[in-house]
């Protein structure tokens, strides 16, 4: 009954696509359990590069069934264009399953996301503008539209009416925008119904039966631990639970079924959007990490903020997710630095602090305490085993492992599918 959760241990963009895809060949189901098309996974297969936003990366592995769980928010227009884009490139997408309980990102949720951010001005979150937060807000307010509602026109109309009732007041009276017509939204959504119907399934039943039958199920988190609505740097977070518990609620699988939780950890740190980031660099080192690491958002095209590795965050991720392993990515990006600073603790108001402060105010004041580790200059992209790495790269990895509190079981040394050192097998 191997059920693995694979999630971002920092602020997202750790290279989860590559890690999921690496396991894709040996897993039977790859499940997304939260988020929506705010995510961006780049997967390189041979000379082909795929950027996925909503679809699970398992869609690129022929033997694998990709699943969009109940905890995901689905923009039907994005779903259909991502599917047709893959079909045009010869990828078979017919095995996809979508939970009937997943919530739909409606056009008005996207509008509300954009106008709210504009209204917040300097205090904006820096969202991806894809309607993610407003859709989850509707879900919690019990005025959300679910995939299954597309197949009952009368229910759909009632629900869209209920959702727009207050929103139209806010849009017209507060934001000075035009009201959105119920009929127009209903027609657009009904237009997607037939195109999506073949994929809609009781995914909770399917996944639990798969686990009973000893199939390998991989739960793929979007975003990352520090963007979690409960455990992240609130309010500069996304509106769902990328942490390990989210896999249970977002897919309908009990915690006793999860056998392994793997945190994807970049060898340095990046973040998109606003919010605190203690090791952020504003100098040429930050610029070099951005350039060498290609640190530009797959979804938004925004430059990512870059900084040194932060072990305080990694320890926190180990704790809140119960991590059993790390997959360290992008080690090759650090090649060429004579010395590499690693943040081992924070200094907050003159005191050394080893763990992530629970107070947001303290976290905003946290200054990194660095230890300098010796760098390496050799090309490491051809390394196949840990022993192939230069001694200093080996000790960099070992230090990160000791500081972060879980074994590093795989190391990414380049963007390609094969450019990975496997230390312990995940399955
Ligand atoms: P939202 O998820 O669009 O509501 O955006 C909330 C915050 O999460 C913003 O800071 C985004 O930049 C960030 N965010 C959302 N998705 C991702 C992702 O896949 N990687 C990194 N940051 C993300």
TrEMBL record:
Cofactor note: Binds 1 Mg(2+) ion per subunit.
Catalytic activity: IMP + L-aspartate + GTP = N(6)-(1,2-dicarboxyethyl)-AMP + GDP + phosphate + 2 H(+)
UniProt EC number: 6.3.4.4
Keyword terms: Cytoplasm, GTP-binding, Ligase, Magnesium, Metal-binding, Nucleotide-binding, Purine biosynthesis
Binding sites annotated in the UniProt record for Mg(2+): 13, 40
Signal sequence extent: none
InterPro entries linked: Adenylosuccin_syn_GTP-bd, Adenylosuccin_syn_Lys_AS, Adenylosuccinate_synth_dom1, Adenylosuccinate_synth_dom2, Adenylosuccinate_synth_dom3, Adenylosuccinate_synthetase, P-loop_NTPase
Name listed for the protein in its UniProt record: Adenylosuccinate synthetase
Organism: Streptomyces ureilyticus
């Amino acid at each position: 009954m191997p059920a693995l959760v694979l999630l971002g241990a920092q602020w997202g963009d750790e290279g989860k696509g590559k890690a999921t895809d690496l396991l894709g060949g040996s897993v039977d189901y790859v499940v997304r359990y939260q988020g929506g098309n705010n995510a961006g996974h780049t997967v390189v297969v041979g000379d082909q590069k795929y950027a996925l936003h909503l679809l699970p990366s398992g869609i690129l592995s022929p033997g694998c069934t990709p699943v969009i769980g109940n905890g995901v928010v689905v923009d039907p227009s994005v779903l259909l264009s991502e599917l047709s884009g893959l079909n045009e490139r010869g990828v078979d997408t017919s095995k996809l399953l979508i939970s009937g309980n997943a919530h739909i990102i409606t056009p008005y949720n996207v509008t509300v996301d954009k106008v709210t951010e504009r209204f917040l001005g300097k205090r904006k979150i820096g969202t991806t503008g894809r309607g993610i937060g407003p859709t989850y807000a509707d879900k919690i307010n019990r005025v959300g539209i679910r995939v299954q509602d597309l197949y009952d026109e009368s229910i759909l109309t009632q629900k869209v009416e209920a959702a727009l009732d207050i929103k139209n007041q806010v849009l017209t009276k507060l934001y000075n925008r035009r009201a959105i017509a119920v009929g127009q939204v209903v027609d657009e959504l009904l237009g997607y119904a037939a195109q999506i119907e073949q994929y809609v399934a009781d995914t909770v039943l399917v996944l639990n039966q798969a686990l009973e039958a000893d199939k390998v199920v991989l739960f793929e988190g979007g975003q990352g631990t520090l963007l979690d609505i409960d455990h992240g740097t609130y309010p500069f977070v996304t509106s769902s639970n990328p942490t390990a518990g989210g896999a249970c609620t977002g897919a309908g699988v009990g915690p006793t079924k999860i056998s392994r939780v793997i945190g994807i950890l970049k060898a340095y740190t990046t973040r998109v959007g606003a919010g605190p980031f203690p090791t952020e660099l504003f100098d040429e080192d930050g610029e070099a990490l951005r350039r060498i690491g290609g640190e530009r958002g797959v979804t938004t095209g925004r430059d990512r903020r870059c900084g040194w590795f932060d072990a305080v965050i990694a320890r926190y991720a180990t704790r809140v997710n119960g991590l059993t392993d790390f997959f360290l990515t992008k080690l090759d990006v650090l090649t060429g630095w004579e010395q590499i600073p690693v943040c081992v603790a924070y200094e907050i108001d003159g005191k050394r602090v080893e763990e992530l402060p629970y107070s947001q105010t303290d976290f905003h004041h946290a200054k990194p305490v660095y230890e300098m580790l010796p760098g390496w200059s050799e090309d490491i992209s051809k390394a196949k085993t840990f022993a192939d790495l230069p001694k200093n790269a080996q000790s960099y990895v070992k230090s990160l492992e000791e500081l972060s509190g879980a074994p590093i079981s795989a190391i990414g040394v380049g963007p390609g599918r094969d450019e990975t050192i496997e230390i312990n097998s995940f399955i």
